[in-house]
Write a structure and sequence with these properties.
This protein folds into three domains: 9-215, Galactose-binding domain-like (Jelly Rolls); 223-357, Jelly Rolls; 366-741, Glycosyltransferase. The chain is built from 18 helices and 35 strands. The strands form nine sheets. Strands 11, 14, 17, 18, 19, 20, 23, 24, 25 and 26 form a ten-stranded mixed beta sheet that branches. A five-stranded antiparallel beta sheet has the order 5-4-7-2-10, with no helix packed on it. It has a five-stranded mixed beta sheet with strand order 9-8-3-6-16, with no helix packed on it. A hairpin with a 2-residue loop joins strand 4 (69-74) and strand 5 (77-82). The chain starts with 8 loop residues before the first strand and ends with a strand.
Length: 766
């Protein structure tokens, strides 16, 4: 195996830096004493260039990494960006064939480097590590990369600190606003003819101790789109009260409202649906002219709601230089609409959207049925997963931009079905496994430097392992993570009493559901951390379920069981089951029976046999009296009870708690909550609400991953009579399959879709 051990370069300010260890348990203070001695560097942009000669014959491979991030240009052409966020102990680099972008003779490799400096859920930043490493390997065209001698040449870099970007922190210390000053920006910096002799050289980073590994997932798809609608109209009335107005220098007057000065106007932009990315704008004016840019997920009172409900205020100022300037922000947002307000005399010449997400062939997994709402629900969930899968599974592309473990259980299951690939799932599994050195019970969000812990999420990590196995049948991958899985259970066992149940697992959140108002009256005090003494249901249901999952993993691997999950199940029933009600209560001492206390019991098969019917009726009567994350377990629980008609009715239900309500409120991606007003800071793109994708595919259409089957899946359709027709296609292990029910006919047909798009019928027995 080739090892990438390059020289890391940084700027002098970071050359002798002693990186701060940001790793800690959430309820403990990070070791930041060194950082407290001086003001930390934040929102640092650095431009760097390196020259190279090419003979026009040999293939040139570039291996590159940066901390926190890079955008790469060859001879002025954008090539790629990365790496995916990761931990220094397992840091990613990218391998790129740059040959198609080279000219015979002199070439310029340029990178726009970024160090955010915030401790958050996005980056491993705020630790004093900033640098870039890159090596060139020249190969003969006949020589395979895998067999090439790794004798690369490290690039040396001239650099310049860029002062064009400034702005306040928004979100949950997630990102900086990008107030951009074109007067401090030279668009030619990445071109070969640019004169950089006055730029100093970067210096070696003496502290660089990264353990590098090639990024295991593809690089992002990045592309431009045109707005669906773009119209020039009067400036909005609230413009005069905008905070942006106050940022103008005292000697520069802002024009009056349009009713007093009709010559001043603004541009309303609608991208057609939510995107993750940014606006690319070209405008002409004179030095010092300004353009206000507001982005939003929705409109309100006929204008864009840029002070967004998800706790992001997307309002930025672009200051022009003389002539025509181009704005292309470095970071990304989640938005659909924009209001662009130029100063009088500024001409907006072009507006485009720059979209980014993990590669997804949207034609692989499709559905078309006789129920229009079902198709639309599938579409918004699919779009949410596409936009929310960036270089990891994000909770949302706005407020946090973090890869949460609990969210990933749903998002990953959906994304694997939509793409037919497990590479992102495996990266997610591995990154959470790396957090075991902070706590064997794992972090709730990774790989960011914000150390958040949620017990419910930690116990769900084993679900990810089994998802991978069910899709791949790969025992070796499962075995490689067995010790981590066992370590999770060992950590939680420290909170167990004599009968095996957990009491006051207080080192982490006990979430139950989010937001708090969707816990269906759950009767246990859930402070952060938990201080109430007692034994409550959901935590123990998840713990007992995790023990069941560990036992299944051990059985697959031919290992003796390390836990008696059956005995634990008996303890769970004794503590929480109320025979007179035929339901599970919220705590050992409670008589209240929340939806959540019964959903997880059924999902993991913990209920007594005689209780199944009563609990099923209870769940159906309650409906989706929960948050959207728990809806995944709710639908799966109903399916486990064989109540497939109820599964379908729950997905298309028209109450305020359901995906149809999202559609009524204008959703083009799935929301964080059932409705915009059901959570105080609702994100309108949140793929944890994508449960209908795997549930429809597995429980309704009948594609059930099963390594014991010849094709890797079984065929067990439960298409409701209400669906007179449905056609669904899915990718699986490099092939594509379809299910059809036509014109109300009883017979359901399954097909393999060949490369030439012909369809070969297959039998239900695999």
């Amino acid at each position: 195996m080739q090892i990438f051990q390059p020289i890391w370069y940084t700027i002098p300010e970071f050359s002798k830096e002693i990186p701060v260890c940001v790793y800690h348990k959430e309820n403990e203070l990070a070791d930041s004493r060194e950082r407290q001695k001086k003001e930390p560097v934040r929102n640092l942009h650095v431009l760097a260039r390196s020259g190279m000669e090419w003979d026009g014959i040999k293939r040139v491979i570039l291996r590159i990494s940066a901390d926190d991030y890079y955008k790469l240009y060859i001879n002025g052409i954008f090539i790629a960006q990365g790496p995916a966020p990761s931990y220094p102990e397992h840091y990613y680099y990218n391998t790129l064939d740059i040959t198609p972008f080279l000219h015979q003779g002199k070439n310029i490799v340029a990178v726009h480097l970024y160090y955010q400096g915030l401790v958050n859920r996005v980056w491993n930043s705020g630790d004093g590590r900033f640098g870039v490493a890159a090596e060139l390997t020249v190969e003969d065209e006949t020589e395979e990369l895998a067999g090439a001698a790794f004798s690369g040449r490290s690039l040396r870099w001239r650099y310049q600190i860029c002062h064009a970007c400034s702005g306040d922190v928004i979100g949950y210390d997630t990102q900086f606003l990008e107030n951009f000053d074109s007067r401090k920006w030279d668009e030619g910096w990445k071109l070969p003819e640019y004169e950089d002799r006055d730029w100093p050289y970067m210096v070696q980073a003496e502290w660089a101790d990264y353990r590098l590994t090639e990024q295991p997932v593809k690089m992002l798809d990045i592309y431009e789109i045109k707005p669906k609608q773009m119209k020039e109209e009067p400036i909005p009335a609230e413009e005069e009260t905008s905070p942006a107005k106050e940022e103008l220098p005292p000697n520069k007057k802002r024009s009056a409202q349009s009713k007093e000065n009709p010559s001043r106007s603004s541009w309303f932009v609608d991208m057609g649906q939510e995107i993750t990315g940014s606006l690319v704008i070209r405008a002409a004016g004179k030095a010092g002219d300004r353009v206000i840019i507001r982005c939003a997920e929705e409109c309100r009172d006929e204008d864009v709601r840029y002070d967004m409900r998800c706790n992001c205020r997307y309002e930025e100022i672009w200051t022009l230089d003389n002539g025509t300037c181009t704005l292309e922000p470095y970071d990304y947002k989640g938005f659909r609409y924009a209001r662009i307000i130029p100063d009088t005399g500024v001409k907006i010449e072009d507006i485009k959207g720059l979209v980014r997400h993990y590669p997804m062939d949207t034609g692989l997994c499709t559905v078309k049925s006789s129920d229009g709402n079902l198709d639309r629900i599938f579409a918004i969930c699919k779009n949410g997963v596409r936009l929310g899968t960036q270089e990891g599974y994000l909770d949302c592309p706005t407020r946090e931009k973090g890869q949460y473990l609990g969210d990933a259980v749903v998002t990953a299951h959906s994304q694997v079905w939509l793409t037919g690939s497990v590479e992102m799932l495996r990266k997610c599994i591995g990154q959470f496994a790396l957090t075991r050195h902070i706590c064997p019970g794992l972090m709730a969000v990774a790989p960011g430097s914000f150390m958040q812990e949620i017990a419910d999420f930690s116990l769900l990590w084993l679900e990810l392992l089994l998802t991978d196995y069910r899709f791949t049948g790969d025992k070796d991958f499962l075995r490689s993570h067995y010790r981590t899985a066992a370590g999770v259970m060992e950590h939680f066992r420290t909170y167990a009493r004599e009968d095996g149940l957990l009491v006051q697992a207080g080192d982490k959140w006990n979430l139950v559901d989010w937001p708090e108002n969707l816990r269906d009256g759950y009767d246990f005090e859930l402070s952060r951390p938990v201080v109430a003494y007692g034994c409550h249901n959901v935590l123990n249901a998840l713990y007992t379920g995790a023990a069941k999952n560990l036992t299944e993993i051990e059985k697959i691997l031919g290992l003796a069981p390390s836990m008696d999950w059956g005995k634990l199940r008996d303890s769970y029933i004794k503590a929480f089951y109320r025979p007179k009600k035929g339901l599970f209560a919220d705590s050992e001492t409670s008589s209240h029976c929340a939806l959540h206390s019964n959903v997880y019991a059924v999902y993991y098969g913990l209920e007594p046999g005689e209780a199944s019917g009563g609990i099923g009726d209870f769940l159906v009567k309650k409906g989706l009296a929960c948050g959207v994350l728990v809806s995944y377990f709710y639908l799966k629980a109903l399916a486990r009870l064989g109540r497939y008609e109820d599964v379908f009715r729950s997905i298309v239900n028209e109450s305020e708690h359901g995906w149809v309500n999202m559609l009524r409120e204008g959703a083009d991606t799935c929301f964080e909550a059932w409705g915009k007003e059901q959570k105080w800071n609702t994100s309108l793109c949140h793929p944890w609400a994508s449960a209908p994708i795997p549930v429809l595919i597995e429980e309704i259409a009948g594609f059930v991953p099963d390594p014991g089957q010849a094709r890797g899946f079984g065929l067990l359709p439960h298409i409701p009579a209400k669906l007179s027709h449905i056609a669904m296609s899915v990718p699986f292990r490099g092939k594509r399959y379809a299910v059809r029910k036509d014109n109300g006919k009883e017979r359901i047909k399954f097909y393999r879709i060949n490369d030439d798009m012909s369809m070969e019928e297959i039998h239900q027995e695999c």
